[in-house]
């Protein structure tokens, strides 16, 4: 079943279910910090307001309460998330 991602102060979309949250956000041209993409560095943290995710790999990085690592999780339900610094679109989104 498809789930919806709602970005606070942003928009909602339905990602392909095989994508990680980070991949899904990238496909929507949302700017998200990342480095390792494997659960080591913790730089891809977003705030989970509502919903549930499943980790595709055991994250090594410390995950503060209320945060999730976008690079290594997939949706288990509809999600409401907040992106640190707000929902910004990648600049190349605006090129024609
Ligand atoms: S990008 Fe490093 S933990 Fe997600």
How would you describe this protein?
The structure is a single chain. The protein is mostly beta strands. It has one helix and seven strands. It is 7% helix and 25% strand. It has a five-stranded mixed beta sheet with strand order 2-1-7-3-5, with no helix packed on it. The protein has a two-stranded antiparallel sheet with strand order 4-6. The protein is globular and about 30 Å long. The mean pLDDT is 94. The structure holds FE2/S2 (inorganic) cluster. FE2/S2 (inorganic) cluster (FES) binds at residues 34-37, 39-44, 61, 69, 71.
Secondary-structure element sequence? EEHEEEEE
Number of continuous helical runs: 1
Principal-axes shape call = globular
Helix content: under 10%
The N- to C-terminal Cα distance equals 34 Å
Quickly give the structural class.
Answer: mainly beta
List ligands, each type once.
FE2/S2 (inorganic) cluster
Query: Beta-sheet strand percentage?
Result: 25-35%
E-strand count: 7
Largest sheet: 5 strands, mixed
């Amino acid at each position: 079943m498809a789930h919806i991602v709602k970005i606070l102060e942003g928009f909602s979309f339905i990602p392909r279910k095989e994508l990680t949250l980070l991949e899904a956000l990238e496909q929507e041209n949302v700017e998200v910090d990342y480095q390792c993409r494997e659960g080591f560095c913790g730089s891809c943290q977003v705030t989970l307001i509502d919903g549930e995710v499943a980790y595709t790999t055991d994250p090594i990085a410390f995950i503060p309460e209320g945060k999730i690592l976008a690079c290594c999780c997939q949706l288990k339900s509809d999600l409401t998330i907040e992106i640190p610094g707000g929902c910004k679109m990648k600049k190349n989104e605006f090129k024609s």
